[in-house]
Description:
single chain; alpha+beta; 3-stranded antiparallel sheet; 3 strands; rod-shaped
Amino acid sequence: MKPVCPHCKSSSVDEMTNGTNHTMNEMLLSPTVLISISISLCRSFNVHPAVGVIAGTAIATLFKMSQSNNALPMLINQQYRCEDCIHMFSTIHSFDSI
Length: 98
C-alpha cells in the first residue's frame, strides 16, 4: 500500500533511498576483497595463504551478519518525499506488511 502525504494528503509520494553508501561498503568489504587482503597480509608475514583464506572468510561472514542485522530497522522505518508539497516524512511498517 502506497503511503499518503500527511501534509497535503497527496498520493504522489516517492520512497527515499540512501543506497550509495550501502553499495560502496558492499564493494569495498566484499568477501573477495577481504579474502584477497587477508592472503596478501599472510604472504607479507610469511604465513601460509590458507590462513588468510580462513581469516578473510571469517571477517566477511561477520560483516555480512552485521549487515543483515542492520537491514531490519531500515525496512521498518522508511522515509518518503511528497512530489506535490516536497514534504518529507517517515512511516513505520508493522511486521505483517513486510
